[in-house]
Amino acid sequence: MTRLCLLVGALAQAVAGYLIYTYAPIEATLGLSQKIFYFHLPLAWWGLFSFFLVFIASILTLTTQKEWPPFLLQAAAEIGELLAILTLLTGMIWGRIAWGVWWTWDPRLTTALILCFIYGGLLLMQKLDLSTTRSQRLSAAIGIIGFIDVPLVFLSARYWRSIHPAVFTSSGIAMTHEMIVTLFFTLISFGLFWFGLLRLRMQSLKLAQQINIATEQALTIN
To answer: Which domain range does residue 196 map to?
Structure first.
C-alpha cells in the first residue's frame, strides 16, 4: 500500500503539472504567478489535515495502550511541520508578487506562523533526554493544545479583516471550470503521495524502535 500510494501519487503529480501549466488558463489579474496557488493550497490543506491526525493520535496516546498512536503522532507532526513551512514559503513568494511585500502580519499568516512554532516545539521536545512514556505523553499534550490554532488558521481569512483570499468565496480568486478541475486533481494526487509518506515514516519509526529494543537487549545479555 505504501509503495502503491507513493508511485500513483508521483505519477498523478506529473499529470497535475501538465494540468497546471497547460490545461488551466492564466488568471487575468495575477497572471502566471497564480500558478503557485496549485502548489500552495494542497500544501496548506494536507498540512492542516496532518495536524488533525496529530490531535487524534494524541488523544489515543493518552487514552489507550496501543502501539501505533505515538508513531502516527510523530509521523504526522513531522510531515505537517514540513508542509506548513513550505506553505509559508510559497505564500511569501506569491505575496511578494501579489502584494509587493514578502511578509505582512495578516491574521492567516500570523496564525500559520504560530502553528509552525507550536509543532516545531513538539518535535524539538521529543529530542530531550526523557523516558519514552513521558516523551509520548508530553508530545500528546502539546498535540492536543496546539490543535486549537488549526481552526483559527482555517477561519482567519473568513471572519477577520484579512488581505489573504478565502478560496471559493466571493472575495476569493475567480476560478474557471478548468481551474477547479486542476485544483481538485492536484489536491487528490498530492493526498495520495502524502498518505504514502505518512505510512513510510510510521514504518521507519516502528523499525527504529525495534532496533533500539534489540540493541538494548543485546547489551544487557553481554
So the answer is: 2-221
